Amino acid sequence: MYTATSTIATDDIIIAENQEFFKKLPFNSKYDACVFMYGKQLKAPFSFWQTNIDIVDAITGGCGPGGFGDKFVPDKIYGLSVTAACKIHDWTFGVWNDEESFNVANELFKENMYIIIEEHGGYKWLQWLRRRRAYKYYLAVAKLGMSSYLDNHLKYIV
Q1: Which residues form the domain of 141?
Q2: Domain total for the chain?
Q3: What's the CA gap between 115 and 117, in Å, rounded?
Q4: Concatenated DSSP letters for 106-122?
Q5: Contact status, residue 40 vs residue 49, Cβ threshold 8 Å
Q6: How far apart are the C-alpha atoms of 114 and 97, rounded to whole Å?
Q7: Using an 8 Å Cβ cutoff, are 28 and 71 in contact?
Q8: Could you give phi then psi for residue 157, rounded to 5 degrees?
């Protein structure tokens, strides 16, 4: 059985063991094109699709800022999980570090949430509600996420 503490410790080990990998990642969206991969419905940086799932899981989480903040930003929008969009967004916040890429990361986040809602969002009225909430998620990261974005990648390069 995993606990939050053991997961954090495991993530720290994975990050420490893969320092050379992290140093080789593209540092902005200009060098890490966002693409749809065969069989995938969401758009993500090429580096995301090419990375081992254990490494992706080590540096990505859910939709909230972590800890107590996750209570206020759930991974589900009216019952529909948008965790995949959040993981891709966390990836971009972890590996990119310039201002232009911050905007690309946030637009990609919004686009992926909308794709999930379009594909799995249910009735049109429910999709409308979900898109409205997704837009609020987007606005929160676009307006409040810059400091987190610029500092976040430093966690992965020790």
Answers
A1: 4-155
A2: 1
A3: 5
A4: HHHHHHHHHHHHHHH--
A5: yes
A6: 25
A7: no
A8: -115, 105
